[in-house]
Amino acid sequence: MNKTVCPGQDTRFWRPGDIFEVTCGACGATIEFFKDEAHRRCRKCGNRVQNPKLSMGCAQWCEHAKECLGFDPKDMKAEDGFEASLVDKLIEAMKKEFGSDQKRITHALMVLEKAQEILRKERGDPRVTFTAALLHDIGIRKAERKYGSSAGKYQEIEGPPIAKGIMKEVGLEDDTIERVNEIIANHHSARGVDTPEFRIIWDADNIVNLADEEEKDGRGRIGEIIEKTLKTKTGKKMALEMFLKEEG
Fold this sequence. Notes:
This protein has helices at 65-69, 86-98, 102-119, 126-135, 140-147, 152-169, 174-184, 196-217, 222-229, 233-243; strands at 19-23, 30-34, 39-41, 48-50. It is mainly alpha-helical. It has a domain at 85-243: Hypothetical protein af1432. The strands form two sheets. Strands 1-2 form a two-stranded antiparallel sheet.
């Protein structure tokens, strides 16, 4: 029986630039990426590096998108009829705001990836969840310019106005903008918000950040942090499997 091949993964359809090199942020080694790979391990130091050019645009027309991604990006299209999917437009806007700050671009894409995984098992609005995943740290550069600090309290102040402008530009409705900005305004402090989408973003963000915690402190405190910090059953299970599952 013939197996359907995704054109996005079929190298016959690829163009120059679909295979590219990324510098490992931990050791400076060069890592070769294919465009459809979410992440790779650095062969030199073992650091997990996210694909900075990851795009889900092909999935907007693919009949197998839901089977591949766990959600249907066609449901995420802005209602203004633009060709690009909502997620892709948000990714481009996020990249534009962060400019050459590859570390923050990578972090946002990794949080999106983890939010997708959690949402497959938890209830939540995909549009709110994916938008908040990509824009949760969007105020960090302005916070650094204005306050000389990237502290969470400043991100929570500066992020919502920037996010609101982006969301209006891509055509999101007022209710979604309000719900996303509530998450952004509380994504470090968790004050007065406990929606399903907030819990998913909180866990996705913390799971990505746990990798740095593991590098600094080893595995000793990871289990305690997971139990005390994460808010969803799926997030806790995912983190335990990622960081504490014994190999072999």
